[in-house]
Amino acid sequence: MTTVAAIFEKQSKDMFRNIGVLAMFVVFPIVALALENLITNPYMEGGMFVGQMAAMFIAMGLVMSVGTIIAEDRENNSLRFLIIAGVKPMSYILGIGGFLFLASAVTSAAFGFIGGHGLAGLARLMPVMLSGAIASILLGATIGMIAKNQQAATGMAMPIGMALGMGPIAATFNETVDRVFSIFYTQQVGVFVNDPTMSLTRPLATIWINIAVLAVVFAIVYRKKA
Known about the structure:
Blueprint: H1 2-15, H2 19-38, H3 48-75, H4 78-84, H5 89-114, H6 118-146, H7 150-171, H8 175-181, H9 185-194, H10 201-225
Helix pairs in contact: 1-5, 2-3, 2-5, 3-5, 3-6, 3-7, 3-9, 5-6, 6-7, 6-9, 6-10, 7-8, 7-9, 9-10
């Protein structure tokens, strides 16, 4: 736990020095708030933009943030020293991801309040949003391990994050896209944020299957790159 705490502390300091990463946790709720207040259409459900921006944050914001952070650690040889010191994959991802998970909790709560879910709705929303955050942290970490440098990580994370984030938006207007993207965790986040009264069983089950797959992939990549 000492190793995890040290990496957690390092990331908490780096977060506020990296404006690009910090912006990812602020911009999406602001955009959701602006769209909800500026665009009114009787054919649109209230809170639709909140669900779309929440999915974009989980997919694009988190994946890009984690990917660039880990790629930077590799580029600066920080990760090499950690590996030589015997830091395990789980300790590393818990340290880096732990802080970003807490930051995601704040952003997720902001989406809940913008969507007008109230405390009861927020209590149901948070498990889905934070489960999605775990999946994105693992995906971003894998990208960060594969990429040669920070620039390459951004280049890889952006299209992947956009695809996962835009899927729920396109699914709103197309049933075929909805069926295709239903297996991805970002789709479950977007749907649940729009309708937090639905059953938690399917969204959480789908997201945690994604998490299990991504955890295995990250562990394999970490050991290979080490």
